[in-house]
Amino acid sequence: MLAFAAGKKTDAVAEAGARARQQRLTKPAGALGGLEAIAIRLAGLQGRVCPRLERCHISVFAADHGIAAAGVSAYPQAVTAQMILNFASGGAAISVLARHSSARFEVVNLGTVEPLPAHPVVVARVLGPGTADISRQPAMTEDQLGAALDTGAGRVDQARGANADLFIAGEMGIGNTTSATALAAALLDRAPETLLGPGTGVEGRG
């Protein structure tokens, strides 16, 4: 989640004002839990005591992960393409939330094993039929990685250019838990087993 600030730094005055405002609202102090902290942080990022979320942009980045071939998922890779179409047709929870909040919503397809038909909600940025199996070789080439990062930056720039108040990024793809854990393990220098448990519907060796 990325809030577009009025300036480059957090506005401490707006943040303090938002914190004071929370204390004046008709509710017990801290009753909204983490939501209060988010509202205060958002106020500081936007430079407004009362932050606004009138123009939200949601991008779900989707692709297949080659590691799925190693049996780490209970579902076949064809489900990724099916889920993208479900998102695009408004059948997923994020689609409903986007619709009710009047957010601009898109799915960015970076590459699936199953080909996808054109759809007005799906932005095609295909880098290949998913990534390679990281248990056997690098998941992506350096060029693919650069193109993927550029795609993400491009969607943020587009949202900023449309004067969005908030940019929300999500991702989906069969095998994504394993890929995310591999990245986290490498970046945090942690053993994979300390970062995750069984995935959805996965049992035994998977």
Automatic annotation (TrEMBL):
Pfam families: DBI_PRT (PF02277). CDD domains: DMB-PRT_CobT. Pathway: Nucleoside biosynthesis; alpha-ribazole biosynthesis; alpha-ribazole from 5,6-dimethylbenzimidazole: step 1/2. Belongs to the CobT family. Keywords: Cobalamin biosynthesis, Glycosyltransferase, Transferase. Transmembrane segments: none annotated. InterPro entries: Nict_dMeBzImd_PRibTrfase (IPR003200), Nict_dMeBzImd_PRibTrfase_N (IPR023195), Nict_dMeBzImd_PRibTrfase_sf (IPR036087). Signal peptide: none annotated. It comes from the Bacteria. This is Nicotinate-nucleotide--dimethylbenzimidazole phosphoribosyltransferase. GO terms for molecular function: nicotinate-nucleotide-dimethylbenzimidazole phosphoribosyltransferase activity. PANTHER family: NICOTINATE-NUCLEOTIDE--DIMETHYLBENZIMIDAZOLE PHOSPHORIBOSYLTRANSFERASE.
